[in-house]
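Regression test case RT-17, inverse folding.

Input:
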């Protein structure tokens, strides 16, 4: 399989005309793997609160313990990303991507069978491991496959398409909530159980398509050359001992940690705020507790939909900006917008009508930065360390980010454990986003440059 454009192609051609059918197949499968991965992540965000209310003896602790389950999920994400990223460089991107998708699809489904807090955390940790492997492997697979001119727009599009997975989760969540309101869910399932079961199905089917993927020729050639020259593939020792790659790895980790904390440590807890606004909005309607639970599930799904409509435009805009103005400029703007929109929601979302414009703005700001990650991270590392380095930055960043939900839970608890304490905690932690901008001078600008060699 060739990873270069046909020799007859004009340099003035649009990037998508440089892509062969094999390029499009690899891009499509990698995009589907990441799309379904993101959909499963959002089902967790939607179902986490209801799961804690059902699985904990004391429902009043649902918000606090929900933040702990998120930390467990992010730790699993970090461990899986570090492990499978290195394995992808050693054994092949396509093979290990298939394993990662299978892992997160199986344990997403098993999460629905949880009987308590502990086994729910076990399933979420193992799901996180699978989820963690996908991003680094998918972007490395595409980066090593498509022509150089097509790399940045293809990777930006891959990340933008992930919003379809997020939007699908929101629409499915709305449908499940509607069925629950009319007592139409089969087998006595609750809304959160149904979400996890539905979420596992498409990802599992995707495994059979992934099995047909071939390894990128660029990786195959580099692997063969590495055996002769003694280059170590997938070695964290090699990554962190080489002066150039070490600098990229640590600075990239700081950059990723900031954006990931913004989304997973803070922003993805917006269902807590939305639920409280919905309760306040309906407090005088006289509806039953069961109906209120269905309304909360429905409107948190609507909020997720709105967040990811904003996310699609944010990721598309930031990906384009990275191609025109450069990766570092796009990063700086995206991180600032993430910070500003997070403050807006946690401080200002008080009325029911606020949901419809504040949440899309936060989606635009917080998710826009992830499109630049998809483009930039593979450009920082050589073929032997591309998945390893990308996974180190993106997934070890999850390990750092895992402290944020715990920190928010502790700050919330210290402030009385109520919603206002939660809002204050989110605002305090959001200042971490600005730290990401400070490390940008340590990293190179990679716009219009080829992928680095050994």
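Golden output:
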């Amino acid at each position: 399989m060739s990873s270069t454009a046909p020799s007859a192609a004009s340099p003035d051609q649009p990037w998508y005309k440089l892509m062969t059918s094999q390029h499009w197949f690899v891009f499509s499968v990698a995009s589907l793997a990441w799309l379904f991965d993101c959909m499963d992540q959002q089902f967790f965000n939607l179902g986490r609160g209801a799961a804690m209310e059902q699985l904990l003896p004391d429902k009043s602790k649902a918000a606090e313990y929900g933040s702990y389950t998120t930390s467990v999920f992010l730790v699993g994400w970090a461990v899986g990303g570090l492990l499978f990223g290195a394995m992808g460089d050693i054994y092949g991107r396509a093979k290990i991507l298939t394993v990662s998708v299978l892992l997160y699809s199986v344990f997403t489904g098993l999460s629905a069978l949880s009987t308590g807090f502990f086994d729910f955390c076990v399933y979420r940790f193992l799901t996180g491991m699978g989820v963690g492997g996908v991003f680094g492997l998918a972007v490395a697979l595409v980066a090593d496959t498509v022509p150089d001119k097509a790399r940045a727009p293809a990777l930006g599009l891959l990340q933008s398409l992930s919003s379809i997975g997020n939007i699908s989760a929101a629409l499915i969540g709305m449908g499940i909530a509607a069925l629950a309101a009319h007592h139409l869910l089969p087998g006595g399932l609750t809304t959160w159980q149904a979400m996890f079961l539905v979420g596992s199905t498409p990802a599992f089917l995707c495994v059979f398509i992934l099995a047909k993927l071939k390894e990128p020729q660029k990786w195959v050639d580099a692997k063969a050359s590495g055996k002769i020259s003694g280059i170590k593939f997938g070695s964290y020792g090699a990554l962190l001992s080489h002066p150039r790659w070490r600098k990229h790895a640590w600075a990239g980790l700081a950059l990723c940690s900031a954006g990931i904390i913004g989304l997973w440590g803070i922003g993805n807890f917006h269902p807590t705020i939305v639920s409280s606004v919905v309760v306040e909005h309906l407090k005088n309607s006289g509806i039953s507790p069961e109906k209120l639970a269905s309304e909360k599930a429905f409107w948190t799904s609507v909020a997720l939909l709105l967040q990811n409509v904003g996310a699609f435009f944010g990721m598309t805009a930031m990906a384009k900006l990275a191609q025109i103005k450069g990766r570092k400029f796009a990063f700086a703007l995206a991180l600032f917008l993430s910070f500003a929109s997070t403050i807006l929601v946690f401080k200002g979302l008080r009325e029911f009508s606020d949901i419809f414009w504040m949440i899309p703005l936060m989606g635009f700001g917080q998710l826009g930065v992830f499109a630049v990650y998809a483009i930039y991270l593979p450009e920082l590392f050589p073929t032997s360390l591309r998945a390893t380095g990308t996974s180190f930055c993106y997934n070890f960043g999850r390990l750092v980010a895992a402290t944020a939900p715990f920190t928010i839970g502790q700050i919330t608890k210290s402030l009385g454990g109520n919603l206002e304490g939660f809002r204050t905690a989110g605002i305090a932690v959001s200042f971490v986003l600005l730290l990401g901008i400070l490390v940008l001078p340590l990293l190179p600008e990679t716009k219009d440059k080829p992928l680095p060699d050994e």
